[in-house]
Amino acid sequence: MKTLDKKWKIILYGCSGLGLNMINMIMGTHLCNAIIADGFESDVAFWTYSEKTLVAVGIWAVLSVIVKAFDGLIDIPFSSFTDNLRTRWGRRRPAIIIGYIPLLISYVLFLFPLSSEAGILNTLWFALLLSIFYASYTLTMITYYATFAEIVANEKDRMFLSTVKSICDVVYFSLNFALVPLFVGFGINIRYIALIFLPLALTMLIPLFLIKEPSTKDGIVNAEGQAVQTERVGFIKSLRYAFKNKRFVYWLCIVGVMNIGLQLFLGGISIFFSNVGDGLNMTLVMASSFAPVPFTLILYNKLIKVKGLKFAFQYILVTFSVGMSLMMLCHVVPTAAQMPVAIACAIIVSFAIGAFFSVSYTVPSQMAAEENARTGACASSMYFAVQGLFEAISASLATQVILLFIRTFGGSGESSGPLMKFFPLFVAAFTMIAFVMAAFLPKSIAILGKESKKKAEKEEEALASVGVAE
Questions:
Q1: 358 by DSSP, 3-state: which?
Q2: Which of 93, 301, 351, 371 is geometrically suited to a Cys-Cys bond with 296, CB 3.0 to 4.6 A?
Q3: In a domain, 227, yes or no
Q4: What is this structure's pTM?
Q5: CATH code, 357
Q6: How far apart (Å, rounded) are the C-alpha atoms in residues 297 and 320?
Q7: Are 352 and 259 in the same domain?
Q8: Are 441 and 366 in contact (CB under 8 A)?
Q9: pLDDT tens digit sequence for 257-279
Q10: pLDDT digits over 231-261, tens only?
Q11: Contacts of 466 (CB under 8 A, 6+ apart)
Q12: Separation between Cα atoms, residue 255 and residue 10, nearest integer Å
């Protein structure tokens, strides 16, 4: 695959996933809830399809769990499919198109129930569309992420691409938390809001123009047309490559613990602040967490260049833990000071939010690139698929087990239990465990991104030797 040689192309490529990430969040956060009217207290006419439940709730709950489990399981076989695809147009562009088209169709069809009444027909219809949507989304995005190891020439550009992508992640999170409620407040139904954001999906067309990949019919070739892999790397073999990499397995353990903390924060912070005084304005708090992220990422990248990834990663983990722990002050300060304290803590937390996303792209893409260079076997997607599976498991553990326990233990009725008062400490505990685990990162990962004088001198010598040879 031809690598991107200009910064503006890398920026454009990093923005490619923004649209699909956004509509995936709308699907999971809003549309799946909008077909059930129960639980909405205000603006029911706009948050739901038609102010009433359209599915058999019990059956829908079971089918939703099955669909989500299916979504978690298909990551790995889909990664093998995209790594081994043989077409005259290469591997990555055809795989993106194969996922992209049914994704859009299923998303639009999800907005139209077959019946205006709750019943098994609607339930099966929505479950079918949801499974198609998630499967298509997984294939498209896992193919896109796999190119991070191939589309740029070195770890510096790979780090930059990961940073751009993490900023885009913050953008779509912010759009979801800020714009969607705003549109609902204007009296726009959630189905129309879903269509308003649909054009953002066009950003996924960017890779189709920037990826320059030769035919893979006779095997995978590099930018110079030289064969680098002629045999297919089967599903089991590519999975073995990932799990035989002890550095990657250890990284999976760290990212799993880190993700529990992050998902607890995203899933429970609004509940925590609703129990502070008379309830705090979550829009301001979340804006304080996400708005500064592009600027905090600059500091994070500076730290990587000077100290390496390990130092920068531990910095964001301890910063996040401190910010969360300080949120406990909201229970002891006067009412007038609660909101300023919450905003100040959210700003501290913002120094880590974007970096959490960035590091999740940087490490697997770098390891995949190193594996490709060392063995000649291209299994880039498998690294992201396996990490995605670990993240899905940790997210389920965080939201469906730990958060549920914190919310309900000792509680009664609709009121939260006494543990919810200490929610920030639970979050901080997990990120601090990840901090301790990060201290034992292998050196090759620890110094990733570090720019030293010796490294710069070696690069200059290498360039000079190339010039002499020419």
A1: helix
A2: 351
A3: no
A4: 0.77
A5: 1.20.1250.20
A6: 14
A7: yes
A8: no
A9: 999 999 888 877 877 877 776 66
A10: 555 566 667 767 788 888 999 999 999 999 9
A11: none
A12: 25
Domain identity same for 382 and 278: yes
Q: Cα(147)–Cα(83) distance, rounded to whole angstroms?
A: 10
Angstrom distance (rounded) from CA 202 to CA 19: 7
Q: Which residues contact 339 (CB under 8 A, 6 or more apart)?
A: 280, 281, 284
Tokens of 314: 């531990």
Residue 93, exposed/middle/buried by CB under 10 A (0-12, 13-18, 19+)? buried
Whole-angstrom Cα Rg for the chain: 23
| Residue 219 covered by a domain | no
Structural tokens at position 157: 């550009």
How many CB atoms sit inside 10 A of residue 210's CB? 17
Count other C-beta atoms under 10 Å from residue 461's C-beta. 10
Would you tell me how many other CB atoms lie within 10 Å of the CB of residue 414?
5
Task: Tell me the per-residue pLDDT of 190-219, one tens digit each, with 9 for 90 and over.
Answer: 999 999 999 999 999 999 999 988 777 766
Question: What does the block give as tokens for 86?
Answer: 């043989």
Number of domains making up the chain: 2
Task: Supply the range of the domain harboring residue 190.
Answer: 1-154+162-213
